[in-house]
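Reading a protein record of the kind used here takes little practice once its layout is understood. Each number in the token line that follows is a code from a learned vocabulary of backbone shapes. One such record is shown here in full, so that the layout can be seen directly:
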Amino acid sequence: MQYIILDLEWNQPLNYQNRAYRLYGDRLMFEMLQIGAVRINEQLEILDSISIPIRPTCYTVVHPRIRRMTHLTQEVLDDAPDFQDAIDQFVRWCGQDYVLLTWGCDDVSVLQQNLDFFDCHPDLPTLYDIQPLFSAVHHLANRSGLKQAMEISEINPDENRSFHDALNDAYYTALVFTHLPEPGLVLNYPQSPKPLIHPRPHATKGDLFESIAQALASEQAQKPRCAICARETILEDAYIPQAADKYVSLARCPRHGLNMVRLRFHPTVDHMREMTVRTTRATRPNIAYVHTKRLQIQQRAAEGRLPDPERMLEYADRSSVTFED
């Protein structure tokens, strides 16, 4: 029996108001762009690998953030096989008598949704998750990211293998897997695909406030509603300014995890501040963005370079540009 380590990269709609998302979003939240896999034998030796780019047919323009992370260019993907051909190529490469392994629970759900959407029915075995086995072996309370797992396993990244490439991530996952004392125990961790929750924003109009500070301290801002269940969430940290009229933070729902919270302010003719609260389910890039932005704001505050928020709001250029992520 052989182990095949699988990793996927996928695209997302440019925004949730565009035509493509309105057409496909209820059935296809993420469209696969790349399959990467590494083959390992029972002696834990790497035998072979494969990387298959996939031409998107629904979300045809690669999201800029995805392009930056994966380095998959529009030119490469335009010449790639479509999803059905890519899956057929992958199944032929897998051969017989193997098990499929992934790192984390995301890939199996994205894979299943793409298989369902494109009406593909390959004969694939059960997928197993290396991540919980790694956490159990190293007595970790939470699931570990791949980079952290490599650090714990004392595996140095290859300068020629960037992260967020499906083949490279599959290769790094294979190295982590081979460093486990009893890797065969991964068969105790089968995966089942989960329905992907579509990010339907929850937005409310707040009351009018005399100042931004008063608005930020209000119940609407301090207990924003979860984008999924509309229950109150717990704010992770103080809001940080993204622009003169925009503030962001993260809030945790006990049931659905982190939400991205966006506040937008409009000055009224009587010098009040009208606040709109908008929440969406937080993505990993959202979380990284907020953390990076917070460090920038802290640095500016230490240097005394933070402008007066009230004055900035009065002169804000309020356009229809969406929030940054």
